Amino acid sequence: MTALPPKPARRSVVPRAKTAPQHGIKGCRSSIALQFVVSRSGRPHPTASVRGIATLERLREARRDGEQLGPERIAALSEELGVPRARAVGLASYYDDLRTERSSERHLRPCAGTACFAATGGSHLAAVSDLAGESGDRSASTSVQPVHCLGYCYAGPAALDGEQARSGPDLVEQLSGRAKPSDPEIPFAAELNEPVVLAGLSGTESAWQVWPQLARAADRAAVIGAVSESQLRGRGGAGFPAAVKWNAAAEAPASGGPRHLICNGDEGDPGAFVDRLLMERDPARVLEGMALAALASRSDRGHVYVRSEYPRAAAELERAIAEARAAGHLGRNVHGGGIDFDVEVFRGVGSYVAGEETSLIASMEGRRGEVRPRPPFPTSSGLDGQPTVVNNVETLSALPWIVARGGAAYAALGAGASRGTKVVCLSGTFTHPGAYEIELGTSLREVVEGLGGGLAEGGPLRAVQVGGPLGGFLGPTELDVPITFEDLLAAGVDLGHGSLIAIGERIDPRALLAHVWGFVAAESCGACAPCRLGSARGLAAARKLAGGGDRPEYGSTLETMRAASLCAFGRGVPGVIRSLERVY
Question: Residue 262 and residue 266: Cα distance in Å, rounded?
């Protein structure tokens, strides 16, 4: 690749950072860099995201210290932060990490995701709760907060003990000290002649080989051209063309503030762990992908949104960011090309729906993580009202390979309109669990039976959940389908994040149905009535069935959710429920 002559340095649109206490946001122990916009009066003031993040951080610190966020404490914190009491109450009552009673001595977060449910039938949740109760007054010594995924789907059941992960069939013994702690690494393999997303982990390509040359030349055209030719689509579930999104953001007018690029590391789909693998084990590749996408979309500020259930990922990213700054890959006038681009980590506060881009942005602005109607799309009005691109971790991690080798090399992989590769995540109920990078178009049966080796427990396979809780279920006779966006949709499921969970005969389908509805009811953001009410009715019907009642008759509930829900969460539930009914 031949670098173009350097372009004249362009001025940064990122104002200097100031510290929070200078603007009335006091009491936060964490360091928060403020960004500013100019109001109509001409006076600078902190953006909504700055005040929002400060509020979330202070509430999180209070909860981490074991404080209970009752009315009096909320009132005091609101006055301290200079925010309306209603805002603080809304946050404390919405996010799981804030509303859960938490002990300052020991906090256990057992995984309630589908992979761990398939591993134990859900029995580990009661066992962890009983273990906490053995210490006497739980509220004084040990608190328990079930979460819907910890990214240990390959070795479940799992739990976080504080921020220390524990995983395996003897989970309860580990937590009680009767067994040696186990925190196994994610197994991975690239089923390709040359890995793309897993290039760094496979040892074929180190990070930061492409970015310096492009940064020196400020060569946006090279990135846009290669990615357009590659036909890369987002790997977060929606499958939207990446280059189209970047061009839309680049061409949208900005109102005086920075343009944003958000790496969506809120990998909440139970069964998926590729984003955790990349953020923990190859964070530099994620950051280089962000830098390339920022150049293509003309973004000035980068953010990595990491779910709170991934504490190690956040720490590794922060370490990699510091190293990248020291090497000159991030910051002002990067590699002398006039580009100003830096990255910061935002830690989530516990919400599955925050993985949806408008909900994620709301969370970063310190609001309840509720979905907003579109248009406007984030590419024209996103974080702080500025043009914003949201890409997921796997999408960004493919960019260094694509730009280095050219879009045609990537487009040569895949099938139909689904080009390139996908990392599929096989749960611990498979004989050979782990993350496998495959070429799109590979048969689902080849992955399930060939790479996965079938059920680890032996016996017949009863069902496979594809694509997470909003993906759907297929039976053992329905696996002869290529893994592409289009073919899976035609089969009644969605590729989603690429998770595959094997389910055996010992799992009661009535309990599985109640588990699915329980997830939906717990994680609905409540912004629209069809999803909020439909999930509650579905859960009640499923629990009645699990208790020995008749098969649920949903009436118009599922169709109303499908047709009238505000976002893909509510609209996707009916297909999942119908697929489960069909398989069983």
Answer: 11
Nearest-10 Cα torsion for 357, 360, 365, 371: 70
Q: Which helix (H) or strand (E) holds 132?
A: helix 123-133
Give the pLDDT confidence of 112-165 residue by residue, as tens digits. Answer: 999 999 999 999 999 999 988 765 444 458 889 899 899 999 998 999 998 899
Provide the pLDDT for residue 52.
74
Average pLDDT, rounded, for the chain = 86
Distances (CA, A) of 451 to 191, 276, 425: 9, 21, 11
Q: Which helix (H) or strand (E) holds 119?
A: helix 114-120
Helices 274-281 and 283-297 meet at what angle, rounded to 10? 100
- Token pair 């599955």 is found at 352
Report DSSP letters for 20-54, one per residue: GGGGT--S--S--EE-EEE-TTS-EEE-HHHHHHH
How do beta strands 142-144 and 499-504 pair?
unpaired
Cβ–Cβ under 8 Å, residues 366 and 46: no
Give the distance, in angstroms, between the CA of residue 461 and the centroid of all CA atoms in the same chain. 29
CA distances from 363 to 13, 52, 223, 359, 528 (A): 24, 8, 30, 6, 17
- Burial track 379-415 (b if 16+ CB lie within 10 A, e otherwise): bbbbbbbbbbbbbbbbbbbbbbbbbebbbebbbebbe
Read off the tokens for 312. Answer: 């190690």
How far is residue 78 from each of residues 82, 86, 98, measured CA to CA in Å?
A: 6, 9, 15
